[in-house]
Specification:
two-stranded antiparallel ribbon, alpha/beta, 9 strands, 5-stranded mixed sheet
Length: about 180
């Protein structure tokens, strides 16, 4: 998923192309996926991210650019995809193949949301714009999910590789500390 506006990042560069540690975030995510057991990578871009689309070598699904949920829905309805589908946000510069494979191992059918404790986001000093209660614990989505048919499940992890989403310049500084 790499078609967002990235308005909170407060930069002229498209969010997926924003460099963390000298490398565009979208490249870091693609590298993580390529070093995992994922068989095929298709980027979901939008009119909000034309530079990102031209930067990518592989196939893209053009989404309307109306927000994450609408873009995800458009991507999932593309004929090139069949469920289950691993979805990954382009703002996870710490992602690597090992954690991607761990997510895939945790998936046992249906859909899987990868969550982190909101307290971990606070400990790391990164933004946590979206949190909710699950099993009497405040959690935050990571931007990594498996979408499939069947029951919904969640995996709660304390792994910073999925906890550090870069939404602000402060988040980018935190990510660079962990690279």
């Amino acid at each position: 998923m790499c078609g967002g506006r990235g308005t909170r990042l407060d930069t002229e560069v498209e969010k997926p192309c924003f460099r963390v540690g000298g490398v565009p975030m979208v490249e870091r995510v693609v590298d993580a996926l390529e070093s995992s057991s994922v068989e095929r990578i298709i980027a979901a871009t939008s009119p909000n991210a034309p530079e990102t689309q031209s930067h990518l070598d592989g196939p893209c699904i053009e989404t309307p650019g109306e927000g994450y949920v609408a873009d995800l829905d458009a991507a999932l309805n593309d004929d090139r995809l069949s469920q289950p589908v691993l979805t990954v946000a382009a703002d996870l510069p710490l992602l690597d193949g090992e954690i991607v494979n761990r997510v895939l191992d945790e998936h046992s059918g249906g859909s899987l949301s990868v969550l982190v404790p909101a307290s971990l986001k606070h400990e790391l000093g990164v933004s946590d714009d979206t949190t909710f209660e699950r099993d009497d614990r405040e959690v935050a989505p990571t931007g990594v999910n498996v979408v499939g048919n069947g029951p919904d499940d969640a995996w709660l992890t304390r792994d910073r590789r999925v906890a550090v989403n870069v939404n602000t310049l402060a988040d980018a500084r935190v990510a660079e500390q962990w690279l």
